[in-house]
């Protein structure tokens, strides 16, 4: 998209030789274009503010190039995110940690690329000779962004950064599951211990009542046996032996 924008910009400017000048009027930075009369069909005023909508939309100057870089970074993240999610649902063996790890490295790479592109556009815009060309900052954004992307992808593949990120997430997930299971087992043990103690407390009144009843029965049995023994003894004493 940036290349198509650059092609359109070069066509509108009438070639690579169109120049842009920055001057301050009333304390504000303005952009003045020279080099192609046909450009007046698009920018027909004698000068425009550096942040003018038309100027920014065309990608002219530093602000326009920065807008292109930021917009391209956001769009890239959206497209990559959509692609990764679709790929996740279409592949049978795809895991959530793989999706998250891949997206994480993708976002970091896009962020670095966008930052490098913005830095390149800023430096080119500040350069005395190169910054005078209207398309200079935009060319810097495209070139720096493409080169940085290639380098980052090479480093990612060479050092297996994405694979290591996914592996780290999988290890963290396994550790979290183990800790969760240990915690759950501890909770279950505490619940079982509490249930046992509660049951013992509930059984205390019943056990006390059973012991009391058993003691009363033993005492009653002892009293009854003593009474029977005493009665039998009295009965024998009252009985007279028949005389011969």
User: What best-fitting shape do the alpha-carbon axes yield?
Assistant: rod-shaped
Helix amount: over 70%
> Averaged pLDDT, please?
78
| End-to-end Cα distance | 146 Å
Oligomer: single chain
Order of helices and strands: HEEEHHHHH
Radius of gyration: 46 Å
Detail the poorly predicted runs: 239-244
Q: Roughly what fraction of the amino acids lie in strands? A: 5-15%
Tally of alpha and pi helices: 6
Q: What structural class is derived from the secondary structure elements?
A: mainly alpha
Helices and strands, with pairings:
Blueprint: H1 2-13, E1 19-25, E2 28-34, E3 48-49, H2 53-58, H3 61-90, H4 96-126, H5 136-159, H6 161-238
Antiparallel strand pairs: 1-2, 2-3
Description of the structure:
The chain has 244 residues and is mainly α. The protein has a domain at 2-159. The chain has helices at 2-13, 53-58, 61-90, 96-126, 136-159, 161-238; strands at residues 19-25, 28-34, 48-49. A three-stranded antiparallel sheet has the order 1-2-3, with no helix packed on it. Helix 3 packs parallel to helix 5 (136-159) and helix 4 (96-126) runs antiparallel to helix 6 (161-238). The longest helix has 78 residues, at 161-238. The protein starts with a helix and ends in a 6-residue tail after the last helix. The model is unreliable at 239-244 (pLDDT under 50).
In short:
This protein has 244 residues and is mainly alpha-helical. It contains 6 helices and 3 strands.
Key words describing this protein structure:
mainly alpha, 6 helices, disordered C terminus, rod-shaped, 3-stranded antiparallel beta sheet, 74% helix, 3 strands, 244 residues, single chain
């Amino acid at each position: 998209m940036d290349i198509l924008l650059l092609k359109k910009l070069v066509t509108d400017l009438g070639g690579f030789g169109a120049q842009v000048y920055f001057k301050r009027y009333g304390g504000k930075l303005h952009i003045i274009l020279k080099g192609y009369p046909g450009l007046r069909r698009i920018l027909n005023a004698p000068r425009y503010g550096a942040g003018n909508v038309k100027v920014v939309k065309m990608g002219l100057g530093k602000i326009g190039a920065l807008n292109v870089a930021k917009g391209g970074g956001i769009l890239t993240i959206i497209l990559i995110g959509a692609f990764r999610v679709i790929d996740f649902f279409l592949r049978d063996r795809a895991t959530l940690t793989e999706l998250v790890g891949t997206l994480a490295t993708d976002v970091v790479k896009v962020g670095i690329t966008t930052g490098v592109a913005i830095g390149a556009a800023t430096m080119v815009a500040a350069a005395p000779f190169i910054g005078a060309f209207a398309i200079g900052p935009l060319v810097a954004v495209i070139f720096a962004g493409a080169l940085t992307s290639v380098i980052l992808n090479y480093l990612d593949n060479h050092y297996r950064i994405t694979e290591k990120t996914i592996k780290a997430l999988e290890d963290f997930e396994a550790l979290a599951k183990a800790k969760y299971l240990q915690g759950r087992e501890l909770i279950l043990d505490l619940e079982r211990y509490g249930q046992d103690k509660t049951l013992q407390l509930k059984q205390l009144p019943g056990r006390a009542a059973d012991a009391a009843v058993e003691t009363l029965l033993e005492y009653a049995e002892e009293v009854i046996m003593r009474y029977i023994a005493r009665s039998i003894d009295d009965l024998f004493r009252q009985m007279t032996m028949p005389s011969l």
